[in-house]
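Hi all, posting the design record for the shared folder.

TITLE: backbone redesign
STEP: 1 of 1
STRUCTURE INPUT:
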């Protein structure tokens, strides 16, 4: 791959899809001998993921949830018992749809086990630890900054401790914001807030409906997208991060989805010399964020 300015690999945007498609490789299959004994590969992803709503304050009952929706209170998700229909439940569904809040139908027995009171009335809402930002706000903050834009997109991160760690590192590295999907990802919970060591109060977090579409929007706004993939040809320091950059970090177990990979301008990997073949998502994010700091210079 030819390098351009500053000796960094920088693909032509018009040929983006052709180049990223060439970077895709089939997942390598391990031999029987590699799966046995001390030579067995061990993935660094956590084996057991915590509950994604862990340590989140919740509202129970139809009236409290409706009032929270009316007031504009920031909600991560609403649980609605199966079979609950009509009346106030229709109002909850309509207001949640208007605000883009996820509503999940669950069995009544599960609602009973989740509830902290006996009067949940088939409705439980999870409160966010902090108000979410809009993606446009993050883009505007980056535009007003003396530094090139730096945005972190998390593709279905499930561990609240990883999320909190990434928020802390993103703030330290001067990122302008973090973007997460509304579904299949940990939201801003109390556990995330605690593990961020206060960074949650300083770095904006936006929720979006579709990661792939959001990456396309960011590219149209002038950003170059760097994704992580253990099979990538480029090492992490070979991607030019001096320009407006989006860093995409994948799920702890499966990594980036294939559709998301195809939206990346660069796919990069971290060199793994030992037996472990991947790093914790929070650690990987930290290495990439501080590589961007190194390339841009450490001045604020």
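Okay, here is what came back for every position:
SEQUENCE:
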């Amino acid at each position: 791959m030819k390098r351009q300015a500053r000796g960094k690999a920088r693909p032509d945007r018009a040929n983006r899809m052709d180049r990223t498609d060439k970077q895709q490789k089939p997942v390598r299959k391990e031999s029987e001998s590699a799966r046995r004994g001390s030579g067995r590969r061990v993935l660094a992803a956590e084996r057991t993921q915590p509950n994604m709503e862990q340590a989140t304050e919740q509202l129970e009952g139809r009236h409290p949830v409706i009032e929270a929706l009316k007031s504009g209170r920031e909600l991560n998700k609403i649980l609605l018992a199966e079979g609950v229909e009509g009346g106030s439940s229709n109002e909850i569904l309509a207001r949640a749809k208007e605000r883009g809040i996820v509503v999940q139908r669950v069995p009544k027995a599960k609602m009973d086990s989740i509830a902290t009171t006996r009067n949940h009335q088939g409705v439980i809402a999870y409160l966010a630890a902090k108000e979410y930002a809009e993606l446009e706000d993050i883009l505007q903050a980056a535009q007003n900054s003396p530094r090139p834009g730096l945005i972190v997109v998390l593709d279905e991160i499930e561990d609240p401790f990883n999320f909190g760690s990434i928020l802390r590192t993103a703030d330290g590295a001067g990122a302008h914001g973090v973007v997460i999907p509304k579904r299949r990802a940990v939201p801003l919970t109390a556990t995330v807030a605690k593990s961020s060591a206060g960074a949650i109060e300083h770095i904006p977090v936006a929720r979006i409906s579709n990661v792939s579409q959001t990456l396309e929007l960011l590219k149209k706004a002038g950003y170059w997208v760097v994704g992580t993939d253990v099979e990538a040809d480029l090492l992490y320091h070979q991607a030019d991060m001096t320009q407006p950059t989006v860093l995409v970090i994948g799920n702890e177990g499966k990594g980036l989805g294939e559709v998301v990979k195809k939206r990346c301008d660069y796919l990069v990997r971290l060199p793994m010399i030992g037996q472990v073949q991947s790093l914790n998502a929070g650690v990987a994010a930290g290495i990439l964020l501080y590589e961007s700091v190194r390339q841009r210079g450490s001045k604020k």
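COMMENT: The chain has ten helices and eleven strands.
Let me know if anyone wants the other runs.
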